[in-house]
Amino acid sequence: MTPSTDAPHSCTRSEDELWASLGSPPDAHELQCLTCQEQRRRLAPLAQAAQEWKTGTDPEESLLEGILGRVMHGIRTEIRRGTLFTLTVTPLGPLRISSYLLLEAIRDAVDSIEHVELRTHKIIPHADDAGPISLAVSLAMQAGQDGTEVAEETRRTIAARFAERIGMPIGTINVTVEDVFQ
Amino acid sequence: MSGPEKPDQQQLGNLVARAQSGDPRAFEKILTYHQRGLLRFCTSMLVVPGDAEDVLQEVYLTAWRQLSTLHAPEALGTWLYRIARHRCIDHLRKRTPQPRDLQGPESLAGDIAASDDRSGENPESNAETNAAMTDLRRFVHELPANQRECWVLKEIHDLSYADISAIVSEPIATVRGRISRARTTLAERMRPWK
Amino acid sequence: MTQSPVDLTVISSEIRCKAVTAVLDVVGVTEVHPPTRGIWKNMLLSSTEPHEALLVHRTARGLVAELDLSVHDDSNAVAVAAQAQKAVSRVLAAHGHRVQDTTVKITVL
After folding, report:
1. A175, burial (CB in 10 Å: exposed 0-12, middle 13-18, buried 19+)
2. Given A98, A165, B20, B111, which is the most exposed site by the fewest CB atoms within 10 A?
3. pLDDT value of residue A128
């Protein structure tokens, strides 16, 4: 839009600046400047409707839970069928388990420990596939905790969880405390 | 925009690390912080009702499968919007192109004139604001796609020029120009609501 | 090891169904999962028949029966899977399939 011709030529305020200041009352410059006043009037209906849009609720939002639920169901099914590990081989045949359940056991174990937040965690297969798997876990620890004790407690808790819920021998459990939080 | 309270940087870093290690609960939590914004963005990019729902599912699935490519947890929001933008563009390409997706702002001149016919109206009721917003949504849908996405990301999603530049893979100056042109068009079309 | 395609005549659907039911009766088993035809395709398809959860095929070494299941959170995966394996083996043996010629693979998902 072309500014009013009687606006002071000295006005260099950009539309961006004016747009950003629309939520506040006009400042001293804008009270004097006819160009800015006209620009404010021109932009006001758009600003008001955009604000309503921004703060309003879309009718489609009622669908959000269903959309996320469907996708997460598919993702969980998919990852359950991801990498498999052999639990043991009985005279009747092999018993296997998905890596998803092993990772869940790590997550449940670490989540049960106070002052610790689990970060990355992975399963390291044995070099010849026949030996026990190893685990690598990284943590954030609350400030003031003893890192060595936290690492030891984490190892103990994971090993206990695996014995109780999985029944699979594990090799080393490598724990790294890589961050501290307040 | 409202929604669940967003995690701080520390919590976000933990959630992303867990999700990248294959924790679906962490991934689901991450999405709950962004799903509303992503749906709004997809709705504003896609004209046909219902399309946004389909595209949003694709966005979630793509995000899950490409999670290892997210190197900085603080860039999560931008990264998700970039995926959403790509999925929307793919979706628009698959369906028959609408003239509005391709044209420039100058071709809206006729519509602006038509819209100006409202100038004689004097909207005063309580429904005025809703009606103005409905008009604005329509006018935004009628913007060229590249202006529409930039304007929506800036004004409805409150993203910075730098974030939008990262999402649309264009220089900040280009983004500024697109938003400015969109604003000019929209302000003109909203003029009857003065 | 060569593997023939799934041969439904190897074991009837009735026997497979009995084996699946026996597994579902094992304490700690929550669910048996049909073999996947692609996760996202499966979500769009109608539900599968119960006996389809037990996949059976013949190899040079004999019969192989495979079944995927889920276990309760408070169960021990190895213990439950071993019980499920025995349950399948018992049903197959009861219908004339020699235990020593049959492999039962159980996967906990």
Report:
1. buried
2. B111
3. 78
- Which tokens hold the place of A26? 């006009």
Q: How far is A157 from chain B (nearest CA, A)?
A: 18
Residues 6+ apart with CB under 8 A from A118: A106, A107, A110, A111, A137, A139, B14, B18
Task: Decide if A93 touches C, using CB distance below 8 A.
Answer: yes
Residue B116 falls inside a structural domain: yes
Query: In chain B, whose CA is at the least distance from the CA of A14?
Result: B180
**Placement of tokens 């264009």 in the chain:** B170
Determine the pLDDT at residue B130. Answer: 75
Considering the four listed CATH numbers 3.10.20.30, 3.40.50.1240, 3.30.70.1350, 1.20.140.10, the one that applies to the domain covering C13-108 is 3.30.70.1350
Q: How far is CA A169 from CA A86, A127, B2, in A?
A: 11, 15, 47
Tell if the CB–CB gap between B191 and A45 is shorter than 8 Å.
yes
Put simply, the answer to whether A120 touches B18 (Cβ < 8 Å) is yes
| Third-level CATH fold of A85-181 | Alpha-Beta Plaits (3.30.70)
User: What type of residue sits at position C86?
Assistant: K
Taking only the tens place, the pLDDT of each residue in B126-162 is 466 678 888 899 999 999 999 999 999 999 999 999 9
Residue found by looking up tokens 């993702």 in the block: A75
Report the pLDDT averaged over residues C11-31: 94
Write the DSSP assignment of A86-125 as a string of letters: EEEEETTEEEEEEHHHHHHHHHHHHHTSTTEEEEEEEEE-
CA atoms in the 13 A half-sphere facing the CB of B83? 26
Q: Is A76 on the interface with C (CB under 8 A)?
A: no
